[in-house]
Design brief:
A 6-stranded mixed β-sheet has the order 2-1-3-5-4-6. It has a 6-stranded parallel β-sheet with strand order 9-8-7-12-11-10, sandwiched between helices. With about 675 residues, the protein is an alpha/beta fold. Strand 8, helix 6 and strand 9 form a beta-alpha-beta unit. It contains 16 helices and 27 strands. Helix 11 packs across helix 12. The relative contact order is 0.07. The protein is globular.
């Protein structure tokens, strides 16, 4: 690291020799998230990258903490990826190449325009930066000019990111943020120091300049000390932020419609910062809702908007540091808050290349998974803008039907256009359901079941199709990731694989609950014939039971067939005789995670153990939140085979279908 490297005087620099970094696909030390600094596939492109960093500092030569961090980050990144930036200078040496860090004032004091005649002094906003490539004969300099020390740090991260992505470095690049306030709110207790430091790097790298914690004065002071080198300000609560910045926080979406990017306009003309939910699907269904965030800018919330605050739930704070698909949402929010007009494709492409390297067989798959995640999740939870039919933890359509049913035999939709306090102008613009964006249709309107959307489908069929398509997309994501198995180290490939498997199961649980609910409350069948049909399914309550008893539920979609079985003894079993043709099958068991203590399940065929698994603890009673699936492929069955499940856990169904890999 540069802080431990020798500070060399001018005159000794030219005689030094430098070791070029060995090229291999290894991450930089202490790599976190997208800051792995994987060596690019074409290092010769950067063969003449300077080996020195000139850190100018203030009039006395003292560098701000953000400037010291910027120099260290350049050493960490460029030193690993292309060559050792192993010299730190305190002024510009006209005889040697360098990467120069400075503000407009420090660059003028250093006489850069005399040393490099091509330099043109231009206005730079306080949090904006310029990256400029200069040459004078055989000498060259990369100038990372920031309107403030914090902006110099942003420039350093951006410069390293361009190399990570194997981009052609521009002769000049200028950027500045759209919103003055770009913050993350971490719910729950204040994390430990080491966690905050890791977040400091991640947040600063995408231009986040504030963190809202839930802490006391002492904790705030300590967090401020840790975040100071990253240019990040700390507030002890949302109220603390609002008071200091003289603004008001405003939700960017209805609480029950996080994928809409739509919320009613708040009264008053005061300055506002919009709050965005980073992980609407929780930890088990990774979603990067970039489109929803960008839709917010088309709503009344965008008026008087001077900031963006991303909310990170307590349960996500630690897992995010270990799981790339969760990190994608944080990266995307930072880039969105910096430049809301940047395309989804561009933002996710940057994340994918920085996280996974420049092998298109890997980053291309990761990019597609993240880009598809939003439409997939919206399709299974909030099709055509319906308020979410459950929570981030799981489906519960019945809860949406308590006071104002979202659907019945006549129509479907929440009809909030007139009731939610939207301005007359907004109401007039979206008064016609036919011209309302699909993402908002059933949130703003209630339409007859015969209503046809833009492609000519009935609205009910469009909901069915969205749910099935969303679940299929989740399954496809897992299949696509499987193609990268041999291209990545197991420790990098496996966590994403396991998360995508979980996401696939959750998506199917959502899909089944939503489509069964729609069929029940509207009576409108799925024209393709899939909704309400469960081939090969045997309800647990119809099996031969020992120790189990049947529980009927009011939550019709919380359990298959409106019932499940619960164990009354220390060991219970449910069995059935197979009556199909001899073949290779997929055996799937629907069960529920335990509310308090995990339970072990044993699958047996003719008394022989085929597989075992253990339920998780979800703290919820049997229903959509705790519903789970276990599947075993490649099971050969013949007529008369006895299939048994032994457990003390709750069971919902057994489903036996042909294994597509064998048929």
């Amino acid at each position: 690291m540069l802080r431990t490297l020798q500070r060399l005087a001018l005159g000794t620099f030219a005689s030094l020799s430098f070791a070029v970094a060995a090229f291999g696909q290894t991450p930089a030390p202490s790599a976190v998230g997208w800051l792995r600094y994987v060596i690019p596939p074409d290092p010769p492109r950067y063969h003449d990258m300077p080996h020195a960093v000139a850190l100018l500092g203030d009039a006395n030569g003292h560098a701000a903490p953000e400037e010291e961090t910027a120099a260290e980050e350049l050493d960490r990144g460029l030193g690993h990826m292309v060559a050792g930036t192993d010299i730190l200078l305190r002024r510009i040496d006209p005889r040697n190449d360098a990467i120069i860090l400075g503000t407009p004032e420090s660059l003028r004091r250093a006489g850069l325009s005399r040393i490099a005649p091509g330099w043109v002094d231009k206005p730079v906003p306080e949090e904006g930066f310029r990256i400029v490539h200069l040459r004078n004969g055989i000498r060259q300099w990369w100038v990372l000019e920031g309107g403030s020390p914090r902006a110099e740090l942003y420039a350093a991260f951006r410069f390293a990111a361009l190399v990570t992505e194997d981009r052609q470095l521009p002769d000049e690049l200028a950027e500045s943020p759209r919103f003055p306030l770009r913050a993350i709110q971490m719910e729950g207790p204040t994390p430990e120091d080491g966690v905050l430091r890791q977040y400091g790097r991640l947040l600063a790298s995408v231009g986040i300049n504030g963190v809202v914690l839930n802490c006391n004065a002492q904790q705030k002071a300590e967090a401020a000390r840790l975040f100071r080198p990253y240019g990040i300000r700390v507030w002890s609560s949302a109220a603390d932020l609002e008071a200091e910045r003289n603004l008001r926080l405003q939700d960017s979406s209805f609480a029950d419609a996080p994928m809409s990017g739509l919320a009613p306009e708040s009264g008053g003309k005061e300055r506002r910062a919009a709050q965005f939910l980073l992980l609407p699907g929780g930890l088990r269904q990774p979603v990067t809702p970039l489109h929803a965030w960008q839709m917010t800018l088309r709503t009344p919330v965008a008026a008087h908007l001077s900031g963006a605050v991303g909310t990170l739930s307590q349960e996500a704070v630690l897992p995010l540091l270990e799981q790339p698909l969760l990190q994608a949402s944080l990266y995307a929010f930072g880039r969105f808050a910096w430049n809301p007009e940047e395309s989804r494709d561009s933002i996710v492409d940057q994340w994918a290349r920085q996280t996974w390297g420049d092998d298109a067989r890997i980053f291309g798959v990761a990019k597609k998974i993240v880009l598809d995640s939003e439409a997939s999740y919206a399709g299974i939870t909030s099709p055509l803008g319906l308020p979410r039919l459950g929570t981030e933890h799981g489906p519960d359509p019945t809860s949406s039907d308590t006071t104002h049913p979202l659907a019945d035999r006549e129509g479907i939709g929440a009809a909030r256009l007139q009731s939610a306090g939207f301005s007359p102008e907004f109401q007039q613009e979206y008064a016609n359901p036919s011209s309302t964006p699909p993402e908002w249709l059933l949130l703003l309107h209630r339409v007859p079941l015969s209503f046809r959307i833009r492609d000519g489908q009935t609205v009910t069929q469009a909901v069915y199709d969205a749910a099935f398509t969303g679940a299929s997309a989740a399954a496809n994501a897992d299949d696509d990731w499987d193609e990268t198995r041999d291209l990545l180290e197991p420790e990098r490939w496996m966590p994403t694989h396991l998360l995508l498997q979980d996401n696939t199961r959750r998506a199917e649980i959502w899909r089944e609950a939503v489509t069964d609910w729609l069929l029940r409350v509207t009576g409108q069948p799925d024209t393709l014939g899939f909704a309400g049909k469960h081939a090969g399914r045997i309800e647990a309550e119809t099996m031969t039971l020992k120790g189990y008893h049947t529980v009927f539920t009011e939550d019709k979609e919380g359990s298959s067939g409106g019932a499940y079985i619960a164990c009354s003894l220390s060991d219970c079993s449910a069995s059935t005789e197979f009556r199909g043709e001899e073949n290779v099958y997929r055996v799937e068991v629907g069960y529920f995670d335990a509310p308090q203590t995990s339970q072990r399940f044993v699958l047996r065929i003719n008394g022989a153990v085929v597989d075992t698994w253990t339920s998780a603890v979800r703290g919820a009673q049997p229903g959509g939140v705790s519903a789970e699936r276990f599947a075993r492929n490649g099971v050969r069955l013949k007529p008369g085979d006895r299939i048994e499940i032994h457990s003390t856990g709750t069971l919902d169904f057994l489903e036996i279908t042909r294994d597509p890999r064998w048929n």
